[in-house]
Amino acid sequence: MDHRLRGGVGAPVIAPSYPLNKLLTAVARQHVSRDALGEEELAGHPLSPEESAALLAGDIDALYRLGANPYLIRRVFRGRFRI
Amino acid sequence: MAEIVAAALVSHAPLITGRPEVSRPEQRDRFYAGCHELGRRLRAARPDLIVMFVNDHLQNFPYSNMPAFCVGLAPAYDAPSPGGARLMRIPARTVPGQPAWALGLLEAGLAAGIDFAYSHEIESWDELSVPLHFLCPEGGVPVVPVYTNCAAPPLPAPRRCHEVGAFVGRFARSHAGPERIALVASGGISHWVGTPETGRINSDWDHMVLDAVGRGDAEPLGRLTHAEIERDGGNGGQEIRNWIALLGAVPGWKGEAIAYEPVAEWITGCAAVWVHP
């Protein structure tokens, strides 16, 4: 997790994870809400162990902390949100 | 010489049309009424082109190729596409583009140091579809979208968005072709979407924005940093760049907030603002 405060004020900005967002972009374009991803979908993607675990668990808070774009989290795991 | 005959700022979110039943009826009715009033005024202005300051949500532009600013050169836009129509529960339709005018904007921008990217094919999502559903239900007026990256940081500075909007405004007034041009910016105001705070709305920040817009004073908005917006307006609040760009196109014009409702069930502060000289 890499919290970097840019500009010296305001909220911390989480550095995006390109492998995480590349995979989530591909899944989002399927336009199907998911509870979690499967092992086979992660194959070939250079994800960290934490990223893989969060995707396999559909852990939306962890994905956010790990640098997944929140719009992609929302689109892929829509059913995981309370609203 | 062309004339800017109308300008409007309006929130966008897929749930505004996709899940009307989850909102409180009085809030929904007031916001819908505001949007319909914007539509009535827009149609009365008889525009022959609508320039829209909007943003993608990683639907079109992925992390492998992320433009800060992008002009749409498409001959038409799905607004929404069949997939988007199911989510937003509004009919799928195609609205015409205005590629010749858009190409002129692109070329003039590049010549002037505004390094727009461009796209010949864009799948619009709620950024075009939801506002046009209310503002231009007939769909006959050509649209040129100017996309700003508001969703995948690092983002262009708000003051740069203001400069880009100012350039678009000058181009619109001076370029031959469509003579009656409307400007619409969608997105904002505060909302947290896809984050652990999803559903949060900060009415205080929204009122700060609406007050500045009401004074026709884009300066405090242009000074906002990414981190300040993220803290007070949420990641969705970064879309305020679209509003700032529009304000740059019509310097001195003032916003009349016809409706403002913080609709938690739609995950966004919802405003409908008419902007006039």
Tell me what you see in this structure.
The complex is a heterodimer of chains A (83) and B (277). Chain A has five helices and two strands, in the order ββααααα. Chain A is mostly helical and 83 residues long. Chain A has one domain. The N terminus of chain A is likely disordered. In chain B, 57% of the residues are buried. Chain B is globular and about 45 Å long. In chain B, strands 6-3-7-2-8-1-10-9 form an eight-stranded mixed β-sheet, with helices on both faces. The model of chain B has no long low-confidence stretch (mean pLDDT 97). Chain B has one domain: Protocatechuate 4,5-dioxygenase, Chain B, CATH 3.40.830.10. Helices cover 40% and strands 21% of the residues of chain B. The interface between A and B is medium-sized, with 29 and 30 residues.
Summarize the structure.
The complex is a heterodimer of chains A (83) and B (277). Chain A is mostly helical and 83 residues long. In chain A, 45% of the residues lie in helices and 5% in strands.
Helix content of chain B: 40-55%
* Global geometry of chain A: globular
Counted by DSSP, the helix tally of chain B is: 10
Look at the structure and give the mean pLDDT of chain A: 88
How far is it from the N-terminal to the C-terminal residue of chain A, by CA?
26 Å
What is the subunit organization of this protein?
Answer: heterodimer
Total of helices of chain A: 5
Into which percentage range does the β-strand content of chain A fall?
under 5%
Name of the CATH homologous superfamily of chain B: LigB-like
Outline the biggest β-sheet of chain A: 2 strands, antiparallel
Give the radius of gyration of chain A.
13 Å
Strand order of the largest sheet of chain A: 1-2
* Average pLDDT reading of chain B: 97
State the share of residues found in helices of chain A, binned by percent: 40-55%
- Which descriptor suits the 3D outline of chain B? globular
CATH class of chain B: Alpha Beta
Give the largest interface. Answer: A-B, 29 and 30 residues
H and E order of chain B: EHHEEEHEHEHEHEHHHHEE
| Poorly predicted parts of chain B | none
